[in-house]
Every structure is written in structure tokens, then in C-alpha cells.
Amino acid sequence: MFHHSTTRRGTLLRLASVAALVAGLSPSAWALAFPTKPLRIVVPFGPGGVGDLTARAVAHSLTEPLGQPVTVENRPGAGGVVAAEAVARAEPDGHTLFLMSNGSAVTARLFKRLPFDMVRDFIPVSTLGYFDIAVIASSESAFKTLGDMVAYARANPRQLTLGSINIGSTQHLSAELFKSAAGIEAQVVPFNGTPALIGALRGRQVEVGVEILGPALPQIRAAALRALAVTGERRSAVLPEVPTAIEAGIAGLVASSWNALAVPGRTPREVVMRLNKAIEGVLATPELRKKLLELNIDPRASTPEQAAELLASDIRRWGGVIERAGIPKQ
């Protein structure tokens, strides 16, 4: 029944769109027929990661309210540039979306040249969710609190090793931001991915790590690792006993990971708002909220303007971190 009604609705919308174009109506008029064909979300990561799983859960939920199939296309490569360029050059009709994230803000400042402008060539539609970054140590570490670690680092300049993942990642830049906010000198050691970082923490090859909480959570719950603090504005819903970095005494240290959906820059406002309303609706459903919370993502929709300001503020923030840390542009 649903398939039949969906197909019929799609046919009617396509006919309405064609009729509007033939009649010479404005883009805002034919945008009311949107969507007229299947949609795709282009993801700048490979399958199986938090970003990919988020996109797939949201895509599945959007199919019903939009009346069209919504699929996910993984296009990893070049720090997200491959996927972003594909969407920036796509037809600005709302049927091709980009899974944007704080990594997109980093990309905007980390590369010397890009084949697009992250602000001009995209319209953020809505945020999808936020996920915590945590400061983590081995459960066998002498550091019981974040204060213990900071006190050691101040008394022993450059002796503390602070692990993260790939140079230029949010985790790597969060480690640099932590050094600056805490006023410590430490050696940031980047690893090639989360498993390598967790292995190094457990093996005491590095004393402390900065990583997204979700992938480390099983190790924390198994008491193999210890979370010293989270770097969000509020405590994590999955580890409410762990303080924020600000609560632990590091003023101004706020860093979290987020993702959002965006469309090409010349997409009509009516289409953007149609997508925004659909995203807001599915993020309020218990089914999708449960799926995202299981991925340790805090589901949060936004207006397009709020999402755009989030992107702009992160471009400023991470650009400053990149410059202070002396990270060479790629």
C-alpha cells in the first residue's frame, strides 16, 4: 500500500514540476513540487563509521516524509574534498546532499586551495547531531582526574604524551586546543586511526588520548580505559559521572564533533526549508533518536541559519588552532 501511494505521489509531483516549468513559473513555484526523484546523501567517509551510520539512519527515516527513496553514497578521499566537490557541482535542486561536519570546517582552513568554497558553495540545511570528544587515559594510569594530568604536565614540560588520530583531524586539533587552553607543553602523537590509538593507550605507549567518546566507550565500560573529562558544553548522556573539561578547571575548552546535511549553494530556499522540516520531523521520532543515541550521538536539528553559523564559527575556531599549532597547510 505504501509503495503504491508513494509511487503515485512521485508521479504527480513530477507532472506538477514539468507543468510549472512549461508554464514558465519561477523556481520558487516549481520548488513546491520537490522532491521529484530519489535523493542521495554523499558521505565523505567509508562505510561503517559514525558519520556513515548516522547518514544511513537518517536516510532511511527521510524516505517516508519525502515520498522518495533516500540513499547513501560513500565517497571518501582527500580529507572530504572528493565528496564535497561532487555535491558542490551537483544540480542545485535539493536531490543531492552532503554530510557536512566539523571536519568540513577544518578542511576549509587546512588546504591551500580547494575546488569550492565551503561557505559560498553550500547551504547547510540542518544539524543532525553532536558527539562528545573525551580525554582518556589507561585505567592503570596514575592520572585519576584531569587535574592530576594537568598538574603533571605543568611540572614536567614536554614530558606528557598526548595521543590523537590523523594530523588535521578534529581529535588532533582538539588535542592542540587542549594544550593551549590548559597552558601546558605536551607532545601530541598522531596515530593512524582509533584502534591504533586505543592500543597505544592500553599499552601505555602514550599516557593520555583525545578521541571521540563513542568508539572508546566499550573500553571505558570494560575498565580498560578511564575517561578524565569530556570537552563538550555539557556532560555526556552516556557517561554522566565524567565532568566536562570546564568543570575540571580548564576554562574555555569546548570542542565537540557534529554533523549536518547541506545542499549546493544555489538551491531554492523553498527546497531547503522542505528538507529542513523533514529532518526536524524525523529527528524528533523515538525510533531515530534511539538509533542515534545508541551511536552515542545527541540528536539535534537546527535552522539553516544556525547550521551556517556553526560552520562559520568552527572555521574561525579551527583556523586559529591550525595557525597556533603551526600545522602546515596541505
What does this structure look like?
The chain has 330 residues and is of the alpha/beta class. It is 44% helix and 20% strand. Strands 1, 2, 3, 4, 5, 6, 7, 8, 9 and 10 form a ten-stranded mixed beta sheet that branches. The termini are far apart. The model is unreliable at 1-25 (pLDDT under 50).
What's this model, at a glance?
44% of the residues lie in helices and 20% in strands.
Low-confidence stretches: 1-25
Shape category: globular
Quote the distance from N terminus to C terminus: 52 Å
**pLDDT average, as an integer?**
88
| Protein structure class | alpha/beta
What is the topological layout?
Elements (H helix, E strand, L loop, with lengths): L1 H21 L4 H4 L8 E5 L6 H17 L3 E5 L6 H8 L7 E6 H9 L11 E17 L7 H10 L5 E5 L4 H13 L4 E5 L2 H9 L5 E5 H9 L3 E6 L25 E9 L4 H15 L2 H9 L3 E2 L4 H22 L5
Parallel strand pairs: 1-2, 1-3, 5-6, 5-7
Antiparallel strand pairs: 3-9, 4-7, 4-8, 4-9, 4-10
Helix pairs in contact: 3-10, 5-12, 7-12
Features:
10 strands, globular, alpha/beta, about 20% strand, about 325 residues, single chain
